[in-house]
Task: inverse folding
């Protein structure tokens, strides 16, 4: 889980950072990074390749624009549909308007609450976001977790996994984004029958294979993507693709 803060008041930004760091230590909440900024574009650029169950604390008013935080939340939803969004603001009168933006905010925390109450609200949001981290957002997701990383991706988006030049680092190619993480290909293969190691450096999602180019030893996908298939495993790859299609479309 990554934690993001959008707040253009430096004092309030540091306050929220301090509270979050204290609470994650208290509850032993695992998180990868805590990113704070006053600029919406900086925050949005940081979530280009994130996966599911991130936590966002957003100020509603940025540079005197009362609804800027709502606009940012809408952009976050496009990039991270499963993230947890919390609004932190002095404009409690804007709370009803958040529903019109369809951003599914978890909570609306007022900055001028008593310190104890403010901390309690932040604590509740952290605990809920942490609990969501381990709950599959869809029954048809690839949910992966090891000591280095944790993420979930819809199977329908996955094209293939490949090894990288950096030892123990894997690159996941999907229809919409690229995700790099530390793991071994052997950890991935056993997760689902749709995943098959067609080459020492590649694991493919058989359900998204468009065709197999035997001559050039390539597996072809939509979106002009392709990966290698070893000559030795071509026949087995084709057989597994056919078996999978027969299960999906039985006669």
Result:
């Amino acid at each position: 889980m990554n934690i993001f803060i959008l707040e253009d008041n430096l004092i309030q930004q540091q306050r929220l950072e301090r509270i979050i760091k204290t609470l994650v230590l208290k509850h032993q909440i695992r998180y990868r990074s805590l990113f704070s900024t006053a600029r919406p574009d900086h925050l949005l650029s940081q979530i280009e390749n994130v996966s599911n169950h991130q936590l966002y604390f957003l100020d509603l008013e940025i540079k005197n624009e009362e609804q800027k935080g709502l606009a940012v939340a809408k952009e976050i939803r496009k990039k991270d549909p499963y993230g947890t969004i919390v609004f932190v603001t002095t404009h409690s009168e804007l709370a009803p308007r958040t529903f019109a933006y369809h951003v599914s905010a978890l909570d609306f925390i007022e900055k001028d609450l008593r310190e104890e109450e403010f901390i309690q609200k932040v604590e509740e949001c952290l605990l809920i976001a942490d609990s969501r981290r381990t709950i599959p957002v869809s029954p048809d997701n690839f949910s992966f977790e090891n000591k280095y990383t944790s993420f979930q991706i819809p199977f329908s988006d996955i094209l293939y996994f490949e090894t990288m030049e950096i030892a123990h680092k894997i690159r996941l190619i999907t229809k919409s984004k690229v995700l790099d993480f530390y793991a071994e290909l052997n950890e991935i293969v056993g997760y689902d029958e749709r995943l098959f190691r067609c080459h020492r450096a590649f694991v493919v999602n058989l359900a998204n294979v468009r065709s197999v180019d035997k001559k050039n030893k390539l597996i072809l996908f939509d979106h002009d993507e392709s990966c290698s298939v070893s000559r030795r495993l071509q026949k087995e790859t084709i057989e597994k693709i056919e078996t999978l299609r027969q299960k999906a479309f039985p006669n």
